[in-house]
Amino acid sequence: MKKYAPTIPVCQLDENNYFVGITTADLDPLENNGYYLIPRLCIQAEQPESKKGFIAQWTGDNWQYIEDHRGETVYSKETGEVVAIDEPGVLPTTVTTMPCPDIYHQWSEKVNNWVEKADAGQLRLQNKLSNAGTLSRMQMFSQLEISLGKNKQALVEAAENALSGVELIKIRNYILETQTFSLGNDNWWTFLTDVLHLNEKQIFNFWNEAIHI
Predict the structure, then answer these.
(1) Nearest CA to 40 among 28, 27, 25, 30?
(2) H-helix or E-strand containing 22?
(3) 113 CB-side CA count, 13 A
(4) Whole-angstrom Cα distance, residue 178 to residue 148?
(5) 3-state class of 181 per DSSP?
(6) Listed residue (166, 202, 167) closest to 187, CA to CA
(7) Which of 40, 73, 117, 202 minimizes the number of CB atoms within 10 Å of its CB?
(8) Which residues contact 117 (CB under 8 A, 6 or more apart)?
(9) Distance set, CA 154 to CA 57, 71, 141, 157, 207 (Å)
(10) Coil, strand or helix: which one is 196?
């Protein structure tokens, strides 16, 4: 009587016929013809070749190799955020393996890379303005007098010489009444740049120095 091995190796698949690994099938103790009890989702076939970046899938006759990017870090071309890849297959055209440098960049299909947004400079400035914090009246006027030699009255006079109408009223009231100064205030930023003729670097240097008064 021919003897059969008590177990044989079989290929284990998942629900989509992707190769999972090797397991064993037991010889059926009730049969004498070498019949094995093949576990569910398993097949008798040669183990597929291991290929980096691919996963083997059983077609019913042989193995085909499918791109597998699960576990890789990819990024949305629209938002720059990390996107999870949950299924084997080619990468979606909406993602890239290149991380977005910062919020001032956007994806360009033309150059196949991240490029600076057209308004990146303005966006950077707005971000700096938002994060600059506020200054008290004492800090604001003390630093202006130290840096420019202008007291509160001189600031009002500068506004009156350069502005008129609603713009003048707003900035004059801001100078005379506000308790905290913010670079996020468009009228104040315009006053510093257009009336006092300070550039962006001067303003932020001035602002940082004033914080320590």
Answers:
(1) 25
(2) strand 19-27
(3) 4
(4) 20
(5) strand
(6) 167
(7) 40
(8) 104, 105, 106, 123
(9) 80, 63, 11, 5, 19
(10) coil
CB atoms within 10 A of CB 184: 15
What string of pLDDT tens digits covers the 213 residues of the chain? 678 899 999 999 999 999 999 999 999 988 778 899 999 999 999 999 999 999 999 999 999 999 999 999 999 999 999 999 999 999 999 999 999 999 999 999 999 999 999 999 999 999 999 899 999 999 999 999 999 999 999 999 999 999 999 999 999 999 999 999 999 999 999 999 999 999 999 999 989 999 888
DSSP state of 46: P
- Order across the sheet with 42-43: list the strands: 36-37, 19-27, 7-13, 42-43
* Calpha distance 171→164 (Å, rounded): 10
DSSP code at position 193:
I
Query: CA 158 to CA 207: how far, in whole Å?
Result: 20
Compute the distance between CA of residue 51 and CA of residue 66 in angstroms, rounded to an integer: 10
**How many residues appear in the chain?**
213
Cβ atoms of residues 79 and 65 within 8 Å:
no
DSSP characters over 82-135: EE---S-SSPPTTEESSPP--TTEEEETTTTEEEE-TTHHHHHHHHHHHHS-EE
